[in-house]
Design brief:
Number of helices: 20
Number of domains: 2
Radius of gyration: 29 Å
CATH architecture of the largest domain: 2-Layer Sandwich
Low-confidence stretches: 510-517
CATH superfamily of the largest domain: Bira Bifunctional Protein, Domain 2
Strand content: 15-25%
CATH class of the largest domain: Alpha Beta
Distance between the termini: 42 Å
Helix content: 25-40%
Strand order of the largest sheet: 6-10-11-18-17-16-15-14
Number of strands: 18
Mean pLDDT: 93
Structural class: alpha+beta
């Protein structure tokens, strides 16, 4: 049986891999070890270079401080009885000078067993080469991990996007730009946490497996809990749980959370994604517009040396306050060539959209309402035109099941979506805290689900019960962390800012996936 299993999972090999395995075998025969532990570096490359770059070659010759360093060999230059190793660690790259006269027997490790891609440990003192490059005069060299696979050719690196996303570890080894992208993403998340902590928000964690679908309009992933013998859904949003906490007395809460939506994959969509969601009692959605402007501007300045703008895909994006604020209907008048009469007539809206080349009656569920047609027109004709940060407000009540109605016009809700570079970045609204109104909205969603809308949410009677205890006037917002990272790292695809984006099985990759970027 073991051989049968082994044949099912045969490892790839080629001539270069076999050569490296032969080196492993030879090293073992000589009593050496290729997978060692116990060697701890005390200096990284960035620190090392900062210490010595400003010093002269002669000054370094007088310094006998011993540095212990480690990393992956990225290049080798051999000169017989001496050579150079370029080594990459977590903070950058440094150069090692190896010499047989200094290393003695250990020189054979460098000469006979080390390849590009191997992980090594080195000790030595600072020096500068004839060309002025800070290096480490190596006095000890250990092979810590043998790389059985050769790295891609240096000057071409990884150009295949699918390979970059599928083998992210290799992409990170070869591309410093990729490492910097994810460093920036981490820094953005740190800044968000710091920003909300300063405003007295409390960071919380809520369930990722839900008994009901709620908090957003999306198809869920379904699973099953064996011990409880009950169906569960991976969360599409944490909203209803977070608002339960506001009912419970936490006036300011936020969660940086993973959400899962059973939808298509594109340069803007991944089935598993990260959101910032926060709720603020005794605030309005207008307050959240001000907060969002302030948060984004602070992130921009911190990442760009105080500048209030960035360049994204060749387009300058300014975060200078204030940003444009416009209603859904006014945006159709301004950007789509629609008129007032069309906005009031379902039939005229259908005709208008068909004149623009769309077939809304074939795309939308059942018999679309005027509100649904208006949103369809906005999504197809306006969104892509909103390059600079723009708050779009006054969404129809019928398409906003969790938002509070506007006091002056109950046909719309107190809600905004933020668009930058034609993409939705955030969604916010005054929370609906009337349990009777919320119950009726849930019932409407249940009817929509029965009619075939697989993105409609479930009726959450426990949430109704929570509202019956009383939710203070509250505003809440969700911000897409992945899209935010795309924006501030000038990344064209969401896959560029997610370490391990969802992809088809490696053995069932279609031509469509390879070209969908």
């Amino acid at each position: 049986m073991s051989d049968q299993v082994r044949r099912s999972f045969e490892r790839e090999t080629n001539e270069q891999i076999e050569v490296r395995k032969e080196k492993l075998s030879e090293l073992s025969k000589k009593g050496g070890a290729a997978y060692q532990i116990g060697f701890k570096p005390d200096t990284d490359s960035k620190t090392y270079l900062n210490l010595y770059e400003s010093k002269s070659k002669e000054e370094l010759e007088t310094i006998d401080r011993l540095h212990r360093m480690a990393g992956r060999v990225m290049a080798m230059r051999d000169f017989g009885k001496a050579g150079f190793l370029q080594v990459a660690d977590c903070s950058g790259r440094f150069q090692c000078y190896v010499n047989k006269a200094v290393l003695g027997e250990k020189f054979s490790i460098y000469k006979d067993f080390v390849d590009v891609g191997d992980i090594v440990y080195v000790e030595g003192t600072p020096m500068k080469t004839k060309t002025g490059e800070v290096s480490l005069k190596t006095t000890q060299l250990e092979l810590l991990t043998k790389s059985q696979r050769p790295l891609p050719e240096k000057y071409h690196g990884i150009t295949d996007k699918e390979l970059k996303y599928r083998q992210r570890y290799l992409d990170l080894i070869m591309n410093e730009t990729t490492k910097n992208t994810f460093r920036a993403r981490s820094k953005i998340i740190q800044m968000i946490r710091q920003y909300f902590n300063q405003l007295d928000f409390i960071e919380v964690e809520t369930p990722m497996m839900h008994p009901l679908v709620g908090g957003a309009a999306a198809r869920p992933f379904k699973t099953h809990h064996n011990a409880l013998d009950m169906p569960l859904f991976l969360r599409i949003a944490p909203e209803l749980y977070l608002k339960r906490l506001v009912v419970g007395g936490y006036d300011r809460v936020f969660e940086i959370n993973r959400n899962f939506r059973n939808e298509g994959i594109s340069i803007q969509h991944n089935p598993e994604f990260t959101m910032l969601e926060f709720y603020m009692a005794y605030a309005s959605y207008g307050d959240l517009m001000d907060l969002t402007e302030d948060l984004f501007l602070e992130i921009c300045k911190n990442l760009n040396e105080g500048k209030e703008s960035i360049t994204y895909q060749g387009e300058e994006i300014s975060f200078k306050k204030p940003w444009e604020r416009i209603t859904v209907r006014d945006s159709l008048l301004k950007y789509a060539g629609c008129d007032e009469a069309t906005l009031k007539s379902r039939d005229q809206m259908v005709t208008f959209l068909e004149g623009k080349g769309f077939k809304p009656l074939d795309v939308l569920h059942g018999t679309p309402t005027l509100d649904e047609l208006v949103i369809f027109a906005f999504e197809e004709l306006v969104e892509s035109t909103l390059t600079q940060p723009t708050f779009v407000t006054a969404y129809p009540t019928s398409v906003s099941p969790l938002s509070r109605r506007n006091d002056e016009n109950p046909e719309v809700v107190d809600r905004f979506e933020l668009f930058i570079y034609g993409r939705e970045i955030a969604n916010a609204f005054n929370e609906l805290n009337d349990p009777d109104d919320q119950y009726e909205r849930f019932i409407a969603q249940a009817e929509a689900k029965l009619a075939g809308n697989d993105e409609a949410c479930d009726v959450d009677m426990d949430y109704i019960r929570a509202l019956e205890y009383g939710l203070p006037p509250t505003a809440g917002e969700g911000i897409g962390i992945d899209r935010l990272a795309m924006l501030f790292t000038d990344s064209p695809s969401i896959r560029d800012v997610i370490f391990f984006p969802q992809m088809r099985s490696e053995h069932h990759v279609s031509s469509e996936e390879k070209t969908e970027e």
